[in-house]
Each structure stands twice: as structure tokens, then as C-alpha cells.
Amino acid sequence: MKKKYSKRNKKENKKLVEALKSYIRQNSSKYLNRKNISSIGIGLKIKDGKRTDEICLQFTVDNKIELESLESVGAFVIPKSIDIEGTTISTDVVQRKYELSFEVIEEATDNARKVRYDTMIPGISISNTRGSAGTLGCIVYDKDNESPYILSNWHVLHGDTGFLGDSIVQPGPHDDNRIDINFCGTLVRSHLGEAGDCAICSIESRNFKEDIFKLNTNVQKLSEPELLDKVIKSGRTTDVTYGIVERIHVISEIYYGPNTGNQNIGCFEIGLDHDNLPNDGEISKGGDSGSAWMISKNNKATNILAGLHFAGESSHNPHEFALACYPKSVFEKLGIKPSSSVNSKEKTTGYNKNFLKTSIEVPYLEDENVAFELNNSTCIDYTHFSLALHQTRKFAIWVAWNIDGGKIKRISRKGISFKFDPRIPTNFQTGNDLYRSNNLDRGHIARRADLVWGTINEAKKANTDSFFYTNIAPQINDFNQSSRNGVWGKLEDAIFRDVEIDDLKVSVIGGPIFQESDREYRGVQIPREFFKVIIYEIEGALKSKSFVLTQNINRIEVLDLDEFKTYEIALYELEKKCRFKLDDKLYSTQIENQLEVLEERKPIKSTDEIVW
Q1: Closest CA to 269 of 208, 227, 238, 232
Q2: I want to staple 158 with a disulfide (CB 3.0 to 4.6 A). Which of 162, 484, 520, 590 is the partner?
Q3: 8 A C-beta contact, residue 173 and residue 125
């Protein structure tokens, strides 16, 4: 009895599909090792060139060969039916020959997809620097630390000659070979095998937008497509194309180059949607690799990801088909999720002036015109910290943050990328170009470890917020690193260790000190000094300590351990240097006549020297 497939009978379909899926997983290598067979999957039997409703095991071959000729060329004869768990299932043989939608690059029909974007948008050109050009599929997030990543194919972001940590460029080298200025991130994780052809890279020196180019939707959910589902994609070369799922749970053998060879890839197959045919008849072309196939309803893309496009029919094949990886297996292998669990639309708390029993305001600028305004305010809020951003120096003027020592969470920084704040134009921020191939480190002003407190969602949001370039400043070989015996990065830890602080709460104000004589490097003036004011309470009494760090920025390419020094400084000196006014309540917290002028002070060599 023929097994028919009906969209109405989902329960019966599912039971049969699961049995066939299990058979394919167990036996795919046996068939794919045979000459001429290119894939095995579940499809609807084709008769006289038309699709029927009979479900079958469908084999594809590079070239159809008449039965009497099969043995003469050493090809395997596929039986007319196969018994699976007591049920006889018909087989079908169709001609297909696949190639990666990356190997043969064709010019994009929409040139807008080939140019550089400061804001990364799914659907535009991207590639490993060793490759040519593929498509940025969608924006995804790390399961553990919420870091945003770009999702595309293994053969787009990694490739036959690539390595983890490789530079990724947008657009791909085929579209713009200026790879030095087109850097957009690094290869973080990748996978090639039955779970799919997939990889993710970090997002650095660029903003990002989740909505897919021309589809006006983003990925919120994952699906496991069924036969006859309608889908739509937005690719670098073929623009927007429509399709229908015609084969599912396919294992296809694809050649990936001399170093990688043939690989068996788990996927499903998409054919033409005859109600929405492409203008040139092509459902995919070279350069479309990595595109996101979205479930389509009423000819519009939903927010449900159906699959990750990675291959299409070869140029010599008479049929139009595309192959896509299943999203659930891809996301599981790469440790990612489709959206952030932290609601970016929630109000960000920022620095809390009432965090201590005594209210402490943020610094008041002598000239507010130097600061960038966001929503008519020079105070820009993040999770547990706020800052003022200098419009021309492109670094924070000050950063104010709160530390709740009793609610600190242990959250990893692994995989989190430095990134532009998408609320602020990139021409007001200093990105990764400044820090490449030198001894300049991207140093946090508000320490990441200080900010990860509160609820787990708060801590995760603060963790990622700390990596915005607005909270980053150039620091010689990271003077915060304890491995270099630097005092600067130990100041907050020292106060918690040495003093009984009320409620384990501390507020800090810090940032660079701008001087006209600061050295210019790569078009950016590098601050040679930084400040930090630590504010706390002991038995209800308000206390504070203020410090300055100096770094020798005349030796960016060579560094000695003694290139940076930390001093204690009086508040009035700090205000003069920074050209802002601190809260008046802080003046009663220091015995300023005990502090000598800065030039005569000895540097602090150990936090044990500090009298809190």
C-alpha cells in the first residue's frame, strides 16, 4: 500500500517521517559511498515530471543512467522499495548535482549588498579574508553570555584553508579587496558535518541590525520544516527568492576542497515556488551561501528561521534546487540562540546617584558642548554605569558606576565582542582600528568585574554592556592586568579586602584625562593619564580616594614594566586636570593638606600602601 503524505494528517506524517529519518541516519554512508549517488532523503515521488502525494525514500544521482548500463559503469542499483520497520516504502531516483553557493561567485543583482556597511545587516556580502564572498545570514546570540554574533556557513567564514580566530571582512574580498579597512570580526566557532555547514563570527568595529535586508523581519524562532512548507530568503546575489520544501532529512555528499574533501551534510531541499518564480529562473547562485531561509506566509517572511542556505544545483543541472541546514542542529552545535533573553527595550538603570546613603551626583562639565547628546542628555546610561562621551576625542570624559559587592555574579567574559553602541553614530566612537598590531589594549574604564551584579539578567546585560567602545580607552599593554603587577586594576578589590564598607557598596567615577599635548596615533590622540575616584561609607561616614595613573604613550610599540605609575591625588587637582566639577559633598571626605603636589609624590607600588 502506498504511503500518502497529507498536511492535514500531521500525527501519521510525523510517525512515518521519524521512521524514515532514523533509517537515513543509520544507512546514509552505505549509499553515499556508492558511485553516482549524491544524496538520500525523504520526498514525494516524482512521476512523469510531476510531484505526487506518495512519500518515498528519494535518492539523487549526478547523472541518471539506464538500468542496463548501471553495472557496466560500476554504479549501485537502487531497489524499487525498502522495508522499514515492517512498512514497505517506495524509492525514487532523481537527477541532482550540487555545488556550494560560494564556489562560483556571480555579480550581485543588487549592488547595495556588496558595499561596506557600518551597521551589519543580514543579507549582505561577508567572508573570511581567505575566501571570496558569501551572505551574512542573521544575527544570533551566545547561549551563555548573550554576545551577538554573525551566523553564516562554514565555507563562508571558515573555509578549506581557514582557522578559528581568522579575520572576517564585510564585504567579502571578491566584492571589495580592501581587507584592512573592512574588518568586522573574528571567527569564533564553526562546524562542518551532518549537523550542518555553519559558523559564527564576532561583531567588532561595527553596529548591527537584526532585520534581514528587504525581508523586514528578524529571527525569533527556529523551525523544522515539513514537506511543502513555503520559504523565502534574501541572498547577496539573487536578492529575494521564494521556494517550497521538497525533500526533508536529506544527507548530501558535498565536496569542500582539497584539504577537507567530501563531507556528508544533513539538510533539506528547496525547489521553486511556481507562484513566485525568480526573474531569471535561479533560486540561488554563487554568493548566496549563508542566507537565512525564513518560513513564508502570504508571500511574506515570518520571524521563523527555516534553514541556513549552503548549496544549490550545479550549473550543468537542468533543475532548480537549493540545500539548507536545519537550524536547531546548527544552533545546538554552535552554542547560540536566536534572540537575546535580555530585553534591550527595557529601561537601562545606569549609574545610581542614591546608591550609597549619601547621594553623589555625576561630574558637572565646565563646557557641556564637548559632550555628545543622546536623547537631549550628555549622560548616557548603561546597566550599572553611565558616562559622558567627548565628541571630538571619541572617548568617555567620565564614567560613573556602582559596585554591589554582596551581589556580584560569576559570569564569564568568554566570547563577548567589543562593539559600537548602536544608539550613537560610529563617527563619535573609537573602534578596533586603533588597537590592531600594537601594544595598545582595549581597556575597560568601568571594570567588567565591577558591573556583574544584581539579578542574573542584570549581570548578563552589564557584562555585555561593559564591552561597548564608549566604555573602552587605549591602555598600554593593559595596565589593569594583575600579571603585570599593576596597582590600577586592584584598587576596587583592595578596598573590599581592607575595609569594612557599609553594605558592601562602592561608587566609582573614572576616565581618561585629556591634554592638548596627548600624542596622536592613527589619527587619534591617546590619553597619557587616567583618573579614578572611589567613594564609600564606613559606619555612615562618607569617604573617598582619588588616583591618577600615568602611562608612557611615546613607546606604543615597545614597553617596559615601569611604563605606567599610580599616584594618589587631591580632588581640586583632579577637577583642574579634567575640567569638570565633582559633587561638593566629596570635599569633606579627604584630608587634602596631607596630599603633596602630584609631581613630588612617590608612585604607589602596592595597594597595601593605601590608607583607606
Answers
A1: 227
A2: 162
A3: no
Cell numbers representing residue 459 in the block: 549581570
Buried-state track 536-556, b at ≥16 Cβ within 10 A, e below 16? bbeeeebbbbbbbbbbebeeb
Residues 22-59 have pLDDT tens digits of: 999 999 988 888 877 889 999 999 988 888 989 999 99
Q: Which burial class, exposed, middle or buried, applies to 54 when counting CB atoms under 10 A from its CB (0-12, 13-18, 19+)?
A: middle
The total number of structural domains in the chain stands at 3
Domain holding 256, by residue range, is 96-340
Residues listed for the chain:
612
Assess contact for 331 and 338: CB atoms under 8 A: yes
Instruction: Fill in the DSSP letter of residue 367.
Output: -
**Nearest residue to 403 (alpha-carbon basis) of 511, 510, 513:** 510
Residues 115 and 245 in one domain: yes
Query: Are 404 and 331 contained in the same domain?
Result: no
pLDDT of 66 higher than 50:
no
- One domain, residues 80 and 188: no
CATH of residue 307's domain is 2.40.10.10
- Taking the C-alpha atoms of residue 498 and residue 501, their distance in angstroms, rounded to an integer, is 9
Q: Where are the alpha helices (DSSP H) in 355-506?
A: 448-451, 456-465, 491-498
Same domain assignment for residues 408 and 264: no
* Whether residues 16 and 157 fall in one domain: no
**Cell, residue 587:** 570635599
Q: Is 220 left (phi over 0), alpha (psi -120 to 50) or beta?
A: alpha
Mean pLDDT of 326-341: 92
pLDDT grade for 78, boundaries at 50, 70 and 90? confident
Return the exposure string of 390-422: e unless at least 16 CB atoms fall within 10 Å of the residue's CB, then b: beebbbbbbbbbbbbbeebeebeeebbbbbbbe
Mean pLDDT of the chain: 87
